[in-house]
Every structure is written in structure tokens, then in C-alpha cells.
Write a structure and sequence with these properties.
By secondary structure, this protein is of the alpha+beta class. The protein has two domains: 159 residues, Jelly Rolls; 102 residues, Homeodomain-like (Arc Repressor Mutant, subunit A). It is 41% helix and 22% strand. The strands form three sheets. A seven-stranded mixed sheet has the order 10-7-4-9-2-1-11. A four-stranded antiparallel sheet has the order 3-8-5-6. A hairpin with a 6-residue loop joins strand 12 and strand 13. The longest helix is centred in the last third of the chain and has 19 residues. It is globular.
Length: 296
């Protein structure tokens, strides 16, 4: 059974060690995403339309909102080091704003430098250290992977990076879904509210965001669930009911399918540093993308 070994939330992202024994269905995150195989059999990941190796020598990089899945094909448990990086990091550390919300390519070679950082971050998580060092390692590994992804990026990557978040109707729909994620939201109503037919809305949303509206909404609910698991004393049942699920069982199935492990397991092993960003934030006025809440 898939389980979490360690989960740590830091200043600009989080890192996890998962023991995976089954496939994780197609899903997305608002964060940039790096996956490294640190033990067990080789597997693959589907990132967009590409099937990529997830091995000790090849990692995977997934841009924010890029649909992806973990394909558990070889028998046995695979250990992964998985990073989730807030878009704010891309905005502050990219040489050009056009690159700010994307990796250049999804296939990452585990060079000696990256391999050393993977080993050191893994050791940090396994030691369950709460003192300093986590954010520095997370930053260094992300930076090294990000720069490699652009060093050999396809020439059309820039054009792809510039296509998102341009249509005001999509931006408005993002805000509507953010505000109504706990309700039984009908996408027909969302389409009507932004002045589009349902087919046109789905086509435009997929062009702009790279995912369907339903997948986007699932991501919002999964993130809110993680936020509640980490920052409230609510029971797993109450968290599921507050998010619109009819029972704890249906919420657990949803969470396990989208995050990879059960919500009770996530809560058991996760911890946050004092500087950790919240999972959820208020929508940015220009892009409609949720951003971290201001620190006082």
C-alpha cells in the first residue's frame, strides 16, 4: 500500500518521500513539481503527452498546472523524493517573466550535482530535522533542475509559456471556482457566468490552463484538504464534508487518487516550518492565480 515516509512544508514549497505501490491518476498542481526515484524499481511518468522514465538517473519536471500521472508498472514499492515549488519561486528566480511559470523540458538528468542534492535532501527528511537547512536544499535542487530544464529546452517552449492566463473569461472562471470549491459546482453554470457555451468554455480553458475545468477544481479541493489537515484540528470526516464530499470514504478515495496517500497518513507524517507558505491564497488581481497570503 502506498504511504508517506516524510512530508515537510517550507518557505517556498514542500518535499515528500513517498513509498508508491500503485499508479496515481492524471492530476495537476498549481506548484512546479519535481519527482526523483530514490529507491526500488524503475517506473514512468506521463507529463502532458510524453511518457518519461522515473529512474535513479532520470527525474521528471512538471510545470504548474501541467497534467501528469505516476505509472506504477514494475512490481514492488518505489520510493520517490517529490518536490512542490510555489509559482512565486519561479517569478522571483527566472531571468525573464516569460519563463516564470514553466520548466523548459520535463526530462531531468540526475547529474552528480543534482544527485548529491537529492541525497542530502532525502537524508534531511528521513532524519525529520526541523532546524534550518531544508529551505536551502529545496532551493538548490530546484534551481539546478530548473536551469538544466532550460539549457536544452525545445525552441517552442517560450511560445508555450506565454499562452496562459491571457483570456479574461478564463481568469474570471478561476476566481469563481476558487470561491465555490466547496459547493456542488456545475461547469455549465460557470460557463454561463463567464459568457460562454459549455463546449467553448472547456476548449478555451484547456487551451489556456493545460487542464480541464474539472481537473482544476479537483486540484483546488486537494490543496484545501492539505491546508486543513496541516492547520486545523478538524477530523478527516469533517474536512471531507466541508469540501462537499458525502462521506469520509469518498473523500479518502479522492485524496488518495490525487495526492497518492490517504489523508490520515498525510496528516500523521507532515510538519511545517514557521516560514511555510499556506497552500491556498487569494486570487491575484491580474492573473486570477491564487498567491500566498501576505506575511505580517
Amino acid at each position: 500500500m502506498s504511504r508517506a515516509i516524510s512530508v515537510s512544508h517550507g518557505e517556498f514549497g514542500r518535499a515528500t518521500i513517498y513509498q508508491l505501490t500503485r499508479t496515481i491518476i492524471t492530476h495537476a498542481h498549481r506548484e512546479g513539481h519535481l519527482v526523483f526515484n530514490i529507491g526500488g524499481p524503475d517506473q514512468t511518468m506521463t507529463v502532458g503527452d510524453a511518457i518519461l522514465p522515473c529512474t535513479r538517473t532520470r527525474g521528471c519536471a512538471i510545470s504548474p498546472w501541467e497534467p501528469h500521472s505516476f505509472n506504477h508498472l514494475a512490481p514492488g514499492a518505489t520510493l520517490t523524493l517529490t518536490l512542490y515549488i510555489k509559482p512565486m519561486w519561479f517569478l522571483e528566480n527566472s531571468a525573464s517573466a516569460e519563463y516564470a511559470l514553466n520548466f523548459g523540458r520535463p526530462d531531468i538528468a540526475v547529474t552528480p550535482v543534482i544527485g548529491d542534492l537529492v541525497t542530502r535532501l532525502t537524508a534531511h527528511l528521513l532524519d525529520d530535522r526541523e532546524e534550518g537547512g531544508f529551505d536551502d536544499l529545496l532551493f538548490a535542487l530546484t534551481k539546478e533542475s530548473f536551469e538544466q530544464s532550460w539549457s536544452a529546452a525545445p525552441v517552442n517552449s517560450l511560445a508555450s509559456a506565454c499562452t496562459r492566463f491571457n483570456d479574461f473569461r478564463v481568469r474570471r472562471s478561476l476566481r469563481l471556482m476558487q470561491d465555490s470549491m466547496t459547493e456542488d459546482l456545475d461547469m455549465e453554470d460557470v460557463a454561463r457566468a463567464v459568457g460562454l457555451s459549455r463546449p467553448h468554455f472547456f476548449k478555451l480553458f484547456k487551451q489556456q490552463m493545460g487542464v480541464t475545468p474539472n481537473l482544476y477544481l479537483n486540484t483546488l479541493r486537494a490543496e484545501q484538504a492539505i491546508e486543513d489537515l496541516l492547520t486545523t484540528d478538524k477530523t478527516v470526516t469533517d474536512i471531507g464534508l466541508d469540501l462537499g464530499f458525502s462521506s469520509q470514504a469518498s473523500f479518502t478515495r479522492f485524496f488518495s487518487s490525487n495526492v497518492g496517500i490517504a489523508p490520515s497518513e498525510y496528516r500523521r507524517v507532515a510538519h511545517c516550518s514557521d516560514s511555510a507558505f499556506p497552500m491556498m491564497g487569494q486570487p491575484d488581481r491580474l492573473s486570477g492565480m491564487p498567491v500566498p497570503a501576505r506575511q505580517s
